Each structure stands twice: as structure tokens, then as C-alpha cells.
Amino acid sequence: MLPKHLTSKGTGRGPRFGETVWDLRPFVLRTTTKARLDFSSGFADEIAVRTTKECLFSRFRRGIPASYMSASRVKPLKLTGAVQEMHRLRAVLADLRAVGASRLSDVRRDHLVAVLDQWKTGSVETAACLVTTLKQLSAHGPFLSWDRLTIHPWPGRSAAAVAGRPPRSKENSTDRIPEHIMAPYLRGAVFYVTTASKDILAAQRMLEDLRAAAERKPYAYGRGRAMFATLAAERRAAGRGLPALPPEMAHLRPDVPVVDGIVQAPNVAFIELLIGGYSADPGLRRMIDEAGGELGYEPGGLDSPISPWPESGRPWRPRLDPFSVNIELHYLRTACWAVIAYLSGMRDSEVRELSRDCAFTEPGDDGRPRYKIRGRVYKHRKLSGDESEWVVLEIVHQAIEVLRAINNCPQYLFGWGPRETGFALMQAIPVRLRRFRDHLNGLFSTDEELFVPNDTSAVELDDDPDADNPDGKEEADAEEDAAEYGEGVPWAFTTVQFRRTVAWHIAHQPFGVVAGTRQYQHARTAMFEGYAGTSESGFAAEVASNEAAARLDYLEDLYQDWSDGGASAGGAAERISAEFERIRRELGDLPGVVSSSARLRTMLQHLTKTLHPGVLNDCFYQAATAVCRKRAKALGRPLPLHNMCLHCPNARRSAVHLPRLSTARDQALTVLDLPKKQREALPRLQVTALTDYATELDELIQTITTDDTKEGAKSV
Predict the structure, then answer these.
(1) Alpha-carbon span 24 to 26, nearest angstrom
(2) Closest of 574, 517, 557 to residue 709, by C-alpha
(3) I need a labelling partner for 386 at 20 to 30 A (CA). Which of 37, 208, 666, 683 fits?
(4) Is the four-CA dihedral 100, 101, 106, 107 of positive or negative sign?
(5) Whole-number Å distance between alpha carbons of 615 and 76
(6) Which residues of 129-163 are buried (b: 16+ CB within 10 A; e: fewer)?
(7) Is the pLDDT of residue 711 over 60?
């Protein structure tokens, strides 16, 4: 049934055409969740089944343009999309039958109009997909034996035009995770990788030792009661209670109360393990209940260490037990996935298909080690993917080492399970990400706020209800809505958001915080060395697209500042101010007012090609006049070089640079203001250079703060 190039000796030729179920799992990635095509239900008759099979059979082998607009990019159907395409074919055949065309050969123009009206009642995206499927049925008609279309549906029009779907935006529409949500989430994930993992692994080893000891226990009548008496005495001396039943298992004892989150019932299975694996007979069970009434109960029960949470200094969670260790291992895997995905820019399938030996280091040009990951890129590639490498941060290697310690699959980093039944690959990542969010909130939230805040972007409350309601009649309703919706909703994490978010942050916020003291600038420097050489992943292009949008946003802010009368200086100030003036005349703007943001962005677009935002100034690079160009060949660095811009004809400074210029000047003055003896210990040339540098920065600050600098006319 499958083309020969998709099979191998290990997989065989795949399912036969006449089989009711086509199982494609041996031929696709293990991360593919749907790879079984079941033709036993949902079809009207055998002809519909045969037609669907023949269409899929043809599409696996050839790409036929459904319209002239798709001729340049049509490809054979990938096996990963086979299940979805079968569902669409089944839906198209059923909907055509519902409007009166029981066979494809019976379809007429009026049937197409009727079925399109039916599809348009739902999502426009779904309608466009079904139109595409119908067009593909027509294109592959010569390869259908029992039934085929005799007319070409909607010739000369694309599926999007037929369904009425608006043109797609060039900007990636995937939601970006807001920084105030991503920062604590990543902080929690990093804590799990670096600190909590040690506690969880220590508890896991302790449980393994207890189980090993239980297997070696000697049989002796009454031994279990004696062992429990010793355990109870130790707990009594330490002022501790017996291990309580986990809250998740409270349904096993619905008759007992729960006090401060602790179920007032013993964890009998765990107590049996603690006393050497002896089963609790009725007599021992009475002893356990009596001791519980005397000593009380405590959560967990293992004596493994629990590290402090840095922000509170208290243990990051209560003591562990076998049930909670198993749960924490799942959360630890999720934390490792989040760290690897977010700090590498890899897609979900690329992360979960990593092998156990994917991490390696290489020395960089500067002698420092470069942490790398070796994996495969699958998007827009053959099914087996293409090999690729990513340069990452050290914390990513730490996450890989944690996964190697907790997972036992010999092949995949994210695979684990009993060897007898086979290893399973980590699945349902979005669900795991959201559960981990809730778990972090349960561990680290305070009475004042959630650790991972809710998303409040959809909450729109009127800041001044009396403005449109002079009598204030709706003020009470507004307050009630604020109480109900003001806290927002938990952010719905998905896998694609991580790659999208890190790309946006690298492009827009090079000085933002990744986690703790790690900066996006650090991540950008390390990660981009890999992105520059691994274009196969497509991440560099995604970041470049975000950088272009970021430069345009920045230019729009510069224009608005100039239009509001903000001062500017530098060699390029007069040239850029003249360009801003030309744009304002064409737009018909008044000073301080922008008539059309969309037109303004279009007219500013050409400036993004030369703009390079900097810390102390911006560079509108012109090779003929660039000061740095003269030294670029000797230094072997790409242009522009921002540390040569203070007196360059391409430099421009405005109010956005004022705080940074002041900071740089103050840092120089800090050294010059040292006590006399300490200052005299400095080299004379260093003191002279710092003095000249501080004086120069003072002059630059004056040029963008004095009243006589108007609209960039004055340059340094």
C-alpha cells in the first residue's frame, strides 16, 4: 500500500490495500498521536470506502495541483496527515450525499453550491480545508476506478477564495506567552531541574533501597509487629506522626476527616514498606490505627532531604512518599521539556525525538565550551528528518542529565516504562504543561498573588465608568464584573508557544530576564551561534522576521518622539529628521498626531534596512561614511560596530538613549571619584581616558536635553 521509498526491511511494505485498518505507526515518528486509519465505520457503502482508499493511495505517490495557484508547491501527502485527510474525505462524501449526490459522478454545480453553503455555517478554516479535499478528489480522478467527479469544482479559484477565508497575515499568529507569566513558569522549571531533581532522585533511590530490603526480608511470625513497634517508637521520640494517606487517595477512606490538608488515615502500603515489606494482618492493622490516634499523621513520610525554596527559605514541598515521588517525576519530566524547548527554540517533535546521547560540548573560538544538542529536524522534511545541531545554555544539558537519570529507555531521552511491556514516549505535552502550571501555583503561591499569574488580557473594564454613564448607574455592575473576571484565567500553554515566545524575546527584548540572573542577551549570544549554522530548523528565519517587526515598532516610536518635539542628536539626526518631515507632509499629520498607523509603518519600512538599534545610540548604517568600516577588516567583525558610533555620521541619539548615556557617564565618574590614594594607584592613561570619556558623554547628554536642540537639527 505504501510507496517503496517510505518503507524499509525493518518495517516491511506496510498494510495491504484491502485491509480494513491501515496501521502506519511503524512508518511515522513516535510523537505522532494518530497513525491508524480505520475504514470500518462512517462510510455509506463499499464504494465510498474504495474511493477514499484510492484517493489516499494516489496522494501518497504523487502531488497533483488542485488549481493553477498551487502548482509550484504541491507535494505528495505525508503519512502524518493521512488520518486527518481520511476524516475529511469521509466528511466530504457524506455531505455531498446529504445534498443529493450519492456518488461523485452525480455531483453537479447546484450540489457544489449547496454543500458550500452548508460548510460556511461552520468555521471558515474548516470550509477551506474541505474545499481543498474536494479539489484533490477531482485532481486525482484519473486514479479512481469505481467513482470520480465529472466536473472540476470551482475552477480557477483557490480554496481560500471559495470559502471566503481572508488572506493570512505574514506575522506568525501563534500566541506569545506574556513575560510576566513565562518568567515565573520558567523559574519554577529551572528550580525543578537544578534543585528539586536532587530531592526527587534521592527519594527515588531511598524507595528502591526499601523495596530491595523488603525482597530480602526473613520470614518470622510476629516480625512485622515488632518492626512497626520500633518505627512507632522512633516517630514518637522524634515528635513525628505516621505517614498519612495521600490527598489524591482520600476517596479510599471517605469516612475520615481531612485536617489542614492531611488525611487522618494511615498510608498502610507505605508503612508496610517502611517495616520491611511485612503485610499488615488484622493485629498489625489495629496497632497502626492506635499509633495513628496517639501520634497523629504527617504528609509524606520519607526521610529524604527537601531543599529550601529560595524566595521563602522554607522547604519547597512537604515530605515525599511513593505516590508523590511518582507524581513529582512526571512534573520533573515536564520541567525538563520546558527548559529544553524554551532555551533551544526546538519544536515539540524535535525535543521528544532526542536520543539519550544527544548532548555534547565543543570548544568555541574563545576557548570556552559550547553546549550543543544533536537532533533531527522534521518539518518540511522527509519522514526520517534531517540531522541538525543546536547551541544551547548549560542548563539545557543539566535537564538532559536529569532525564537520563529518571528515564530508562535506551534509545529516546523522553521514553520510559517497564522493559517487559515496552517503553512509552512522553505524550499529551499541553496537558502536562498546564498541570505543571497549577502545581507550581499550589507550591509557591502566596496569599497575595499566584506564582504563575493568570492571563488578564481579555478582561476589559472601564477605568472611568462615569465618562459614558453620567448618572453612575452601571458602576455597581462594573465592580461586580471586576470581582468576577478581574483575576483573569490561567494561561493555556501549548507547545508551539515556547518557540514563538523565545523568538520574539530575542528579537524584541535582548536585555530581558530568562530566569534568575540569566539574561536574554546571554541566551541570544550562545543560541545564535547555533542558529546561524542550523538554518534547517527554520528558527533563524523566524527570529529574523520578529526582528524586522521589532525594528519597525522601534522606528514608529522614534517617529512619534520626534513628532512630539523630542530632541535628537548625532551625525544622522539631521538626515533622519528630514526623512521624518517628508513622511509627515505626505501623511498630512499634525505635530504630535499620527493620522494612520498602517500608512506610517509602510512609509517607515525602508528605514528598517539600515537601522541597527544600539545602547548609547542608533546606527542608520551607510557604508560610505561609516567610521567602523575602516577598522572592520582588521578586526574581522561584522558591521556595524556600535562602540565606534559616538562621532560617526551614521549615529543618532534621542530621549530613549538618555538613561543609558547617564548610566555610562556615572560609571566612569564612580572610578574618578575614588579616594585620592586609590585614584593615584590607577594608571595615568586610564584616568585620562576615563576623564575624556565622561566629558564626552556629558556633551552628548547635553545635546539631547538642552532647549536649543530642536527636531534633530543639531548634531555632535
Answers:
(1) 6
(2) 574
(3) 37
(4) positive
(5) 49
(6) bbbbbbbbbbbbbeebeebbbeeebbeeebbbebb
(7) no
CB atoms within 10 A of CB 294: 12
Q: Is the pLDDT of residue 471 over 80?
A: no
Query: Which position has the grid cell 534521592?
Result: 202
Check residue 165 and report its DSSP letter: P
What phi, psi does 549 have (nearest 5°)? Answer: -65, -35
**Where are the extended beta strands (E) located within 234-286?**
242-243, 258-259, 262-263
- Separation between Cα atoms, residue 331 and residue 338, nearest integer Å: 11
How many whole angstroms separate alpha carbon 435 and alpha carbon 185? 12
Non-local CB neighbours of 600 within 8 Å, separated by 6+ positions: 556, 559, 583, 587, 594
The length of the chain is: 716
Number of helical (H) and strand (E) elements in the chain, helices listed first: 24, 17
Say if residues 107 and 134 touch (Cβ distance below 8 Å).
no
Q: How many Cβ atoms from other residues are within 10 Å of residue 618's Cβ? A: 28
The answer to whether residue 542 scores a pLDDT higher than 80 is: no
Specify the pLDDT at position 438: 94
φ, ψ (nearest 5 deg) of residue 22 = -100, 110
Taking only the tens place, the pLDDT of each residue in 370-390 is 888 998 887 767 767 778 888
Please list, residue by residue across 372-388, b when 16 or more beta carbons sit within 10 angstroms of its beta carbon and e when fewer do: bbebbbbeeeeeebeeb
pLDDT of residue 358: 92
- The closest of 331, 343, 347, 398 to 513, measured between CA atoms, is 343
Report whether pLDDT(11) > 80.
Answer: no
Local confidence band at 708 (pLDDT 50, 70, 90 cut-offs): very low
Q: Does the pLDDT value for residue 630 go beyond 60? A: yes
Peptide bond between residue 418 and the one before it cis (omega within 30 degrees of 0): no
Q: Categorise residue 106: left if φ over 0, alpha if ψ from -120 to 50, beta otherwise.
A: alpha
Q: How far apart are CA 352 and CA 376, in angstroms?
A: 10
- In terms of Cα–Cα distance, which of 498, 491, 452 is closest to 352? 498
Instruction: Give the list of residues 6+ apart from residue 225 with CB closer than 8 angstroms, or none.
Output: 283, 284, 287
Burial status of residue 233 (CB atoms within 10 A of its CB: 0-12, 13-18, 19 or more): exposed
Which amino acid is located at 319 in the chain?
R
**Residues 63 and 140 sit within 8 Å (Cβ to Cβ):** no
Strands, E assignment, 568-689: 568-569, 611-612, 618-620, 651-654
Summary mean pLDDT of the chain? 80
The residues facing 373 across adjacent strands are 359, 390
Which residues pair with residue 242 across a beta bridge? 297
The helix/strand/coil state of 38 is: strand
Residue 282: exposed, middle, or buried by beta-carbon count in 10 A (0-12, 13-18, 19+)?
A: exposed
